[in-house]
Structure formats: C-alpha cells, structure tokens
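ARCHIVE CARD
Drawer: 12
Card no.: 0347
Subject: one protein chain, sequence and derived structure
Cross-reference: see card 0346
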Amino acid sequence: MSQTAPAASLKTFSLKNRKGMSMTVTNFGGKVMSLNVPDRHGVPADIVLGFTKPEEYRNGNPYFGAIIGRCGNRIAKGQFTLDGKVHQLPVNNGPNHLHGGPIGFQNSVWEIIPTTVNGDEALELTYTSPDGEAGYPGTVKAKVLYILTRDNELSIEYSAVTDAPTIINLTHHNFYNLAGADSGSIVNHSLMLFASRFTPVSADLIPTGELRSVEDTPFDFRKFHTIGERIDASDEQLRYGNGYDHNWVLDKPDSNALTLAAVVSEPGSGRIMEVFTTEPGMQLYTGNFLDNTDVGKGGKPYGYRTAFCLEAQHYPDSANHAHFPSVVLRPGAGYYQKTVYKFSTED
C-alpha cells in the first residue's frame, strides 16, 4: 500500500504567483507542505504546519496539509448501511472511524501533473481507490486540482466517480496559523462563520443528529470573535471537544453555490483569509490535541492550539443520519466540490 511506498517515489512540486504567494506540495497524500503568504508589509511567511521533507509525514501527524477521503470526519463505530448492506470500516479515533481510516487518502501516493488554469499555475492530482480499500465499497477515481491564482487564492476543486454505490466526503486539512507556522497560539485570531446552526456532538464527538441554533452560545461567530474569547467557557460541547472541534451548518441560499463561509484575520501580520465553498458544512478545529509531539519545519514543536483548521465538507457521520445532506455516490453520478482560500491584508 501507499504507506510502504519507497522514499524515491515521494516527490514535491511547487507553485507561485506574481504577488508573492508560493506553495509546495508532496504526492504523499497531496499534502501542502508550505504556503507562503505576504503580510501587510509584503513580507511572506509560511502559514501552514508541516514538515521539511515528504518522508517525515510517514511518522508525523498524518493530516497536516492533506487531502482527506474517502470520507472526511467521523463515522460512528466505523459502520454505515448502504442499500441494506452493513459496511464495517476500521476504527482509528476511539470507537469511531476518522478521515478515511489509517490508510486513507492522506496516506496514499497521488499522481501529480503540473498544469495551468487560465494562466495560473496549478497541479492536477489523481488517485484510484480500489474496491474494499479501508472497507469502502466500489472503485473510486478521485481528482483534485490545486490552483494558485493571481488573486492570491488557493483554489481546490475535487471530483470523483465510482463503479459501485459508495460514500464520499472529501475535504482538505491545512493547519493554519496566519501569523506564521511557528508563531505560537492562534487564540488571538478573529473568526467569522456564516452559520446560524451547528451539529452538537456526544462525548465521543459523533453528531447527535440535532441542528442546534448558535444563538447565545460560544458557537455564535456570525460576528467577529477571537477564537480564544469563549473557547474555555463552561459549555458541555466545548468540554467534549477540548475546545472547538465541531461542524457548522452553513447559511447557504443556494445549496450548491460557491459562497463565503468564513473569514479569519490575524492582527499582528494583518493577514486575512476568506473561505468560499460549495459544501454545506464547515468543521472548525482549533488544534486542541496538538501536544508538541510533532517537531515541524525549523525544528520547532507544534503545541496546543498553535493552529486552526477550516474543513469544508458534508456533516460528520452523514452516512448514519438520513436528514443530513447525503454522502452517497452512485455509478453514473459525479462528485464535485470546490473550496477557495483567499488571502489579503488589512492595515
């Protein structure tokens, strides 16, 4: 399998634009190893956690910068029923299946072809997941397109087809720190989320099925709040996640449209990140389980709450909640999602 691929098969690819942005990607999990973005003075810094060499991702955090699949987020007890048949997936997060399991898309070697899209540098990544991989039915052919645009956007387009009914929920797992990857805590970052509801979870972080209003809760980011302002509030949901590790139900007038879902700003650098997506949900994770185990670029360990993730996706455990947006993919139907991370600065 891909986890035992020889080191010689691991490669890196670079993209840049004319406004000072650049990025490096490895074919191991399609991981974004670096993403350099200018600050208010035009000085670029790498704003994603990761490692210097592709080989280091074998033993480090498997999700840093990765493409996540087949099914992002958690599936209760690793089980789902499709067309009357129960499928058992490996459990790798307590009693649950997380992010496609231990041999998910994040630990697969992707084919990468450099290309251009409308004059912007891009990478086309493809991977074929065979029938039965990680317990999932059907052979899935997945394609991901990274585009670094002239408007300082990292645009990610995902598509997939299957030869048998299956489930799919692709997302991306950059760990961001807009002050710079080695700049410490992210609790002073300000966040706005265009979501009036979220999906509360049980103690093992599986959605209960409720779509709960954010009104009068620490989950209300409809106006800017710093991430740290309420993260340690006396709230059952925050205790379960050790902070924010939840899915927000995005307010979308058109369920399939590319719409603004979130805005993050960092006062020291002036960097702003806007997130646009076609997806119905957005998972906010605030690095609550980073514990200095991973020593990243520059030899610096990544500690508690030193990064945040905004993962555009369908809701967690959607395969087991009929009233959630469906993650079922059938032959003859195509899967598609697009998420854009747009960067700018403020004075």
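Annotation on reverse: The mean pLDDT is 96. DSSP finds one helix and 26 strands in the chain.
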